[in-house]
Amino acid sequence: MKELFPAKQVWGFVFSLILTVVALLVYFFNMSKATGMTIFILTAFIQAAVQLVVFMHARETDDSKSIFMTLYGAIFLALITVFGTILCMIWGWSY
Amino acid sequence: MGFFSRFLIPNPSPVIYSSMVAIGVTVLLIIFGLTHFKKWFYLWSGWLTTVDHKRIGIMYLISALLMLFRGGVDAVMMRAQLAVPDNKLLDSQHYNEIFSTHGVVMILFMAMPYIMALMNFVVPLQIGARDVAFPRLNAISFWLFFMGAMLFNISFVIGGSPDAGWSSYFPLAGNEFSPHVGTNYYMIGIQIAGIGTLMTGINFLTTILKMRAPGMTLMKMPMFTWSALVTSIIIIFAFPVLTVALIMGTMDRLFATKFFTMTDGGMDMLWANLFWVWGHPEVYILILPAFGLFSEIIPTFSRRNLYGYRSMVASMVFISIYSFFVWTHHFFTMGQAAYVNSIFSITTMVIAIPTGIKIFNWLFTMWKGRIRFTVPMLYSIGFIPLFTIGGVTGVMLAMSAADYQYHNTMFLVAHFHNVIIPGVVFAVLGAGTYYWPKMFGFMLNERIGKWAFWFLTIGFCLAFFPMYITGLDGQARRIYTYSESSGFGPLNMISFIGAALMAISFVLIVYTIYYSIRHAPRDVVGDDPWDARSLEWATHNPVPEYNFAIIPQVNSRETFWDAKYKGHELFKGDYEKIHMPNNSGGPFIMSCIFFVFGFALVFSIWFLAIIGLIGIFVCMAHRSFEIDHGHYISVEEIKATEAKFGGVNKWK
Ligand code: HEM
Ligand SMILES: [Cu+2]
Fold it and tell me: Which of A74, A80, A88 is closest, CB to CB, to B336?
């Protein structure tokens, strides 16, 4: 029976709910913008990781190496895009 | 009446009314023809439900040719309007609508599907596979593209066309300055087609990585397959950005969010930024497969192997990553500091290096080759010098300080047509001729094809080279007329003549197809009419449903050439029964629902949108629970087919 019970998935589900609630708190409590954003970013990234590993089975097959390669590629390009955008429109803005 | 008045066009004209009539008549004729000749069942079972990559490729090809016609008509109208100063042929609103639809149609609904057509048709054959990795997903990709394109295309007769340019910059594209539904069509039509493209990227990446014939290592893949692989990777990373930007734009227009507004914390420049984060990789999505096609054609007609295979691969892989680092060069004049512009100037210029390497490799391939001047080869030879000019002017534009002079002028228009026409259009036309016998079993007439090539090339030079000059003199793009005293008149007249020559070339291309269908000899071309080098030519013309009766064994780069002339054994073993996917109406039906959903969103008809959305989810649920194991082609059937074609090794 124990093998049939998807303990990992149930815990993952509970954990992702908790993360959602934590993010929601930002709305209900009065906190500074910096703290709020920090909480958002942290919970968002942990949430994404939980989804990938628990529900999208990212580490369970033997092609997981290529999955993570693509993932790192995506993260790299996302960072380039985000920081490039900030560079153009905030840091390097001259008008 | 209030409900229906939204479907009227805001700026009607006789031309639009007559196209309405023309569209209506064509639809009626098609319906009548299908009924009269009892072809409905054939259409449904042979095409609408097919999951065969070859048939999907052919459908992409037909759509691309249709869209080439539509975009071409737009282009000729624009050039006619600009041919003389102070012309009254079109008013400014129509001119705006025409250049906007021209750009979208040509890039997203002509060039992209043309590339997809060749990728679909050729890649599985080149790697010795029987289909793509996810055949049904492939059908969904096609139908989503098709429905997105159709949704975009009906805009000019129902509700009005988008008029904010193919880049649809905010705030111009926002509700305040573009109150009509045109820009909704832009956002939603491209969104639907874009989802299809994203899935194609995933599909081809998987296909190429997982389904190569035994022995074909990555470094033994034909160059077109390499380019398709790299393109798929760029698609997977670039298209999500477009998806998100379009959703944000749609939300701004339909639900009054404030992503790209100038007030309430919105940031209008963010649209331009996101658009080009996708847009620049997109131009490489178009050009890399074109490079791949030239790399197939040039060695075949020079009778030499491709020079510098490794550097070709390396430069493509480099471009695939680097194309994400340069997007800011599209808005040097937006207002960022000089040091930011310098960074992107340099990254942009660097990307010209791998492109240059490829040019030299093609030249060295032809060096001392025995060149045959067939139509595909003419296109390839024309491509090299013309594309080089486009690349050089690109580097000129990449100098950010100088770009303040060039930006938004006809110089820029000349640049990108100079890379896209000799690059992409020449490639797909050349490769279309090259692969024609593979697709249909007969050759296209070479004589008329050469005429078409010369008309296109000379027309291209006449149409676009004058724009470099008028652009430097200050003629702005996207402006519907100019004054006599500006002195732009004569050069624009030359451009118009060039455009007319290109239109003639299009007519000639259609005529070649018509003529060859009527007159070209059948059953004489054999499987390998060009004496080619890679695997797709090792099967029959036209290709049987299962592609290869026996999966080939690869042990060199130029598999087929080595099998022909060095005695490599390609097909070992006996026939076995072949597992093939089943046809399905699902993709077509789901895409039709997508069309309705998109249409409802364009006009904010919410109940219909909700029904459409539910319909889409029902289709997906149905697919999830469907049990479909495909079917087998029996050994007897394979034997019969192969006997008809002369057997697997008949070219020996
Ligand atoms: C040598 C490589 C290239 C360089 C250095 C280059 C550089 C540039 C630059 C700097 C611009 C922006 C100019 C401005 O807005 O003022 C531009 C625009 C453009 N380029 Fe290129 N380019 C290159 C190759 C290509 C290729 C291969 C394609 C397509 C296949 C292409 C398509 C375009 C398009 C479509 C636009 C402008 C679209 C618009 O604003 O509507 N370019 N290019
Ligand atoms: Cu660019």
Answer: A88
